[in-house]
Design a protein that fits this description.
Elements lengths: L2 H21 L8 H7 L4 H29 L1 H20 L4 H29 L5 H29 L4 H4 L1 H11 L15 H24 L4 H23 L13 H30 L5 H7 L1 H21 L1 H22 L7 H27 L6 H30 L5 H26 L28
Helix pairs in contact: 1-5, 1-6, 1-8, 3-4, 3-5, 3-9, 3-16, 4-5, 4-8, 5-16, 6-12, 6-13, 6-15, 9-10, 9-16, 11-12, 11-14, 11-15, 11-16, 11-17, 13-14, 13-15, 14-15, 14-17, 16-17
């Protein structure tokens, strides 16, 4: 197979796989009201339906990258697709909320293996001069999948049933598996698995998320909640301490000495916090508060979801010229303005025309952020460590999504509920204000990314740190 043809096939295969697994981050969002009635789920179970996926994704994505380095990226990519496909079938067959949550957790494991490997496989297949454009397209596909989740979920639930949002993954996965044999096999330099780190990160995140989700119901000062949050924080502290001393860390803390890497990941955490938490509530608003069907709800979010299709490719190419800093900072600021706008005008009977403007603004902002972030992160490390850098970024942003859903849903439950349209809006508005504030802080964090290196500057590799030092901040 010719090099150009192989590159196109690689891009197509990795893009389809990426779209499929990222779509499931929020594909259930517009189905949540139907699932709540059909399975008799509580608000906590609805949160776990979303967070079971993102939590296992966040924890295992670093291990997924390491497995690819050790056993072969193509081999592990195919295993991840197979696990994700089987778990999708299990979710479609779920007779209860607990079964659905368990299947979603296994889906997250499969997605955690697939996602970082799509990036490292694609990056290796593209010449370095075109990498910004390719990674911009990769980020745009990921952003589009996240944004399309509510629309696809609403269309499928309205046209068939909620189970089919999971059944649709099965034929796609079955087709992807033989196509993946066309990919080149490769391994990475670091073949060690950090199982103690995996255990500490899993336990720490589980404790914190469990405490945040159940805090309103059990009482924030109850022993179970205080204990869960304290144990979770202690385990995460132990995780950081372990990663600093182990010779083969799953998350190399030295990466964060690089300002571009640290700022890009900090901005990603805050971006996903504000975006995931807000979409979790907004996708239910049109059904619960305004009485629209799942499809009607998804269509009304379309001005938000369509923007990445048009903006992300342009932003990806532009990032090669001006760098990721201005695009990411502007994107987060636009999203913050969009959410604040919605919070300011939202009522139980707000006219849809009042929401179109902030939806468009938020969609443009999301595309501006998604397009350059992968290139910024990977440019901060040496090529052999791109797998771990990609896994770290994926893990951090999914942690942001988990925390965003947990915190904003907790604020929603504190001030409102599902009892009436007015009650839902009472909970929605303060949650959106918090989401807007978090995104605004993210915009400031993105400004800490150093300006783009001059074209004639020669990168200098620090072999002690295995990082590419960034230029001085302007």
């Amino acid at each position: 197979m010719k090099a150009g043809t192989r590159t196109l096939w690689t891009f197509a295969i990795t893009s389809i796989a990426l779209f499929m697994v990222v779509l499931d981050n929020l594909v259930v969002s517009t189905a949540l009201p139907v699932i709540r009635v059909d399975l008799g789920a509580s608000i906590e179970e609805l949160e776990w339906t979303v967070n079971a996926y993102t939590l296992t994704f966040a924890v295992f994505v670093l291990t997924g990258a390491a497995l690819g380095d050790r056993f072969g990226r193509k081999r592990m990519f195919m295993l991840g697709v197979a696990v994700f496909t089987a778990a999708s079938a299990a979710a479609a067959l779920a007779p209860s909320a607990d079964w659905l949550i368990a299947a979603r957790a296994v889906q997250g494991v499969g997605a955690a293996i697939v996602t970082p490997l799509t990036l490292t496989i694609l990056s290796a297949a593209v010449v370095r001069q075109k990498r910004g454009l390719a990674l911009g397209a990769w980020s745009g596909i990921a952003g589009l999948a996240v944004a399309m989740g509510p629309l696809v979920g609403g269309a499928v639930v309205d046209g068939i049933s909620w189970q089919w949002i999971f059944w649709l993954n099965v034929p796609v996965g079955i087709v992807l598996l033989p196509l993946a044999t066309l990919l080149r096999e490769s391994t990475g330099p670091d073949k060690a698995l950090d199982l103690p780190g995996l255990a500490l990160a899993s336990g720490g995140l589980l404790g914190i998320v469990w405490g945040l989700i159940h805090g309103n119901g059990d009482g924030w000062t109850s022993p179970s909640i205080v204990g869960a949050l304290a144990v979770g924080a202690a385990l995460l502290g132990a995780f950081v301490a372990w990663e600093l001393r182990t010779p083969h860390p799953m998350l190399p803390m030295r990466f964060f000495r690089n300002r571009a890497f640290a700022a890009a990941n900090g901005a990603s955490l805050l971006m996903y916090f504000g975006m995931f938490g807000s979409i979790f509530l907004l996708s239910q608003f049109f059904q619960t508060a305004q009485g629209y069907s799942p499809l009607g709800s998804g269509l009304r979010i379309l001005p938000w979801t369509l923007m990445p299709m048009f903006v992300a490719p342009v932003a990806g190419a532009l990032s090669d010229r001006i760098g990721g800093r201005p695009l990411m900072a502007t994107g987060l600021a636009l999203q913050a303005i969009g959410l604040a706008w919605i919070a300011a005008v939202s009522t139980a009977t707000v006219a849809y025309s009042s929401l179109v403007g902030p939806f468009i603004l938020s969609g443009i902002g999301m595309a501006l952020f998604f397009a350059p972030v992968a290139n910024v992160v990977l440019s901060a490390v040496r090529p052999p460590e791109e797998g771990k850098a990609s896994g770290t970024n994926n893990s951090i942003r999914e942690v942001g999504g988990v925390l965003g859903v947990a915190v904003l849903a907790s604020i929603f439950a504190r001030y409102g509920g599902y009892e009436s349209p007015e009650s839902f809006n009472d909970g929605l508005v303060p949650a959106l204000w918090i989401g807007a504030g978090v995104l605004a802080v993210g915009s400031l964090v993105a400004l800490l990314i150093p300006r783009k290196r001059r074209e004639d500057a020669v990168p200098v590799v620090d072999h002690d740190r295995d990082l590419v030092p960034q230029p001085e901040a302007a």
